[in-house]
Amino acid sequence: MNPSRWRRGRAVLPIALALLAAAACSKGTATPAAGGGGGALPKTLVFSPLSLAPPALKGLSEGVKGYASSKGWEVIVQDPNFDATKQTQQLNEVISSGRAGAAWIIAVAPKSMGQILKTAQAKGVPVLVNGQPGEYGYSGPQPGITFDYIDYTAGGKALGEQLGKCMNEKLGGKGKVLFAVSTEGQAGKAEFEKAALDALKATAPGATLVQNVIAADRTKAQTDIGNALQGNPDLAAVMGANDEGALGALGAFSAAGKPLTCVTDFGGNDEVLKDVTDGKIYASVALQFQADMTQSFDTLVKMQADPKANGEVLIVPQKVVTKNG
């Protein structure tokens, strides 16, 4: 659930929730800790996503609240609506008040989080933020702060390898490729795209990249890929850096009445995975958010016992999913 991943495609999050398991024995709400954490922290999770506008994030917030209440936890859900200033103001209010027992933040702008993280440390409130330490100005794990990030290099490598395999199997290793990329400024963009293209070249040297199209959302991606298809009617393969790119490509080729022989995806939402099962998408490098949610909340619960100890650096699990499993 790295923030850049939401800004790159934002429909990749399955709503199935198996998080908060480690809180099962924590019933009720304790007295808020004062100052630097001299008392028990309340069993209250502050969940601050980028926004509640995306259906997946709205669904996630509802799922977290429902599951947490069954485990004796309260969840305070905030909605900064993609506004970094609003997000820091909301977080500062609830953390400074002593109501927060832990905070899970999908930061709109990681560099704006400096004072919030210091406030949480001073209050002894453990925090999990999405991204790597360097995005927040740190060189490694910090007291009371856990970082959770997507390994974009590994994801890009898997994406390119899978498209190369498809082209070797179905196109004799040759053909024109379109790359549906993420928008400019997204964290991980450069290393992801380089890894994907390097892996494609290594796996299917005869593949030729002819165009990049920015896949900001599915509708625009479909339109832009349709336009690219008019200029390159013999396009045979598409690499989707997000679900919108892959699904937009399927829509564009279908609208043009042309077959799309090879398409691979990075993200793995439910619709994409169904298309993989149906053979429309060759492979998806699927982010395992359910597993990530579990490890993230388990870590926050553990951190409550010693909020001044260094947190962890977690990696969102990934899995290559093909029609055969």
Whole-number tally of structural domains: 2
- Number of helix segments? 10
Give the biggest beta sheet. 6 strands, parallel
CATH topology of the largest domain: Rossmann fold
Classified in CATH, the superfamily of the largest domain is Response regulator
Computed structural class: alpha/beta
CA distance, first residue to last residue: 24 Å
Range of helix content: 40-55%
Strand order within the widest beta sheet? 2-1-3-4-5-11
Q: Compute the number of strand runs.
A: 12
**What fraction strand?**
15-25%
In CATH, the architecture of the largest domain is 3-Layer(aba) Sandwich
CATH class of the largest domain: Alpha Beta
What is the CA-atom radius of gyration, in angstroms? 21 Å
Mean pLDDT: 86
Low-confidence runs (pLDDT<50, min 5 residues)? Answer: 1-38
